[in-house]
TrEMBL record:
This is ClbS/DfsB family four-helix bundle protein. It comes from Evansella alkalicola. It comes from the Bacteria. InterPro entries: DinB/YfiT-like, DUF1706.
């Protein structure tokens, strides 16, 4: 696939990994998809992983909106620093324990579409040029989007594969 821009590659990778994640979830019979597994990990079921992705999309959308409005967004979230990410992620997990998997999937599908639309609205140059936007500081938009789409979807796939395997094996 020569000649692809970083933007095109990001869009393709993100869609492929997003669909692969959904395929893993759909590989489990629907009546068993809400099953939690025994694990020391924070995320014990598909919903936990899906809502984690959704919340990071929401944070990305906030950073983007505030940044494009001329502000410097507080990252990762108000009251948190990058070194307190573990606590932020645990609070995200706690906040979504009452959400059903179906609700979570609907939220994630919508947020995925919104983020993909934002990516599509930019030129390759706008995405990959460091410091193109003041709010990205020494980085570029691409790194923000990749971290919250294709890279994060890969993380989610690695989390959901053992969940699916465990449910299918009935353990």
């Amino acid at each position: 696939m020569t000649g692809e821009s970083e933007k095109e590659r990001l869009l393709i990778d993100s869609e492929q990994k997003f669909n692969a994640l959904l395929d893993i979830i759909e590989s489990v019979p629907s009546r068993k998809r809400s099953t939690s597994i025994e694990t020391q990990d924070r995320d014990k079921n598909f919903r936990d992983v899906v809502m984690h992705l959704y919340e990071w999309h929401a944070m990305l959308e906030r950073w983007y909106r505030e940044g494009m409005d001329g502000d410097i967004p507080f990252t990762p979230a108000p009251g948190y620093k990058w070194r307190t990410l573990k606590q932020l992620n645990m609070n995200i997990w706690e906040n979504y324990q009452e959400v059903t998997l179906n609700q979570a999937l609907k939220k994630l599908m919508l947020s995925h579409e919104r983020v993909m639309s934002i990516i599509k609205s930019h030129t390759n140059e706008e995405l990959v040029t460091k410091k193109y936007y003041k709010w990205t500081k020494t980085s570029n938009l691409y790194s923000y989007f990749a971290a919250n789409t294709s890279d994060h979807y890969m993380w989610a796939i690695k989390k959901c594969e053992p969940i699916a395997k465990s449910i299918k094996q009935g353990t």
